[in-house]
Amino acid sequence: MPASFYILGLITIVSAIAAMSLRNLVHCALCLALSFISVAGLFLQLNAAFIAFAQVLVYVGAVAILIVFAILLTRDAETSSEKMSSHFWISLGIGFLLCAVLITAVAGSSVLAVTGVSSAPTVAALGRALMTSHVIPLEMIGLLLTIALLGAVVLALPEKADESGEEGEP
Fold first, then answer.
1. pLDDT digit string (tens) for 87-101?
2. Which of 60, 68, 95, 119 is the most exposed place for a label (fewest CB within 10 A)?
3. Model confidence, pTM
4. Which one-letter DSSP state was computed for residue 127?
5. How does DSSP assign 132-162, residue by residue?
């Protein structure tokens, strides 16, 4: 395996551990986005360019950014002075234990012995299906995500004070 695979794997593991152990939620979300990007790099190593593109588009471009917006819109400006969680070593141990279990499960399975190429649909066929027979569900998902983002913005807005100086009833 090339060295870039090991580098991307290390970046994925380190950023995932940082995402679950840092105290600042914004830093956790950014580490999660870095983990998503490095997983996309691993997909590129497997010659799965469309899946890597979808990973960046959906997870980094939508989910991670939505998490950052939600944190920034709904949280107070208060942050703790501690950089790491008090349970860092426990979370690190659980992360390594989970990694060992997954490696053992994959190494003992017959998945690695499978040879041959599956007949996966091409990118053109997927695009054609999304823009012809699945265009309505695709547009509805986009509309639903936009409504969810607008709802988060409305919930994060401060309440207006009425003329008497008291905050109004919601």
1. 778 888 888 898 899
2. 119
3. 0.56
4. H
5. TTTHHHHHHHHHHHHHHHHHHHHHHSPPPB-
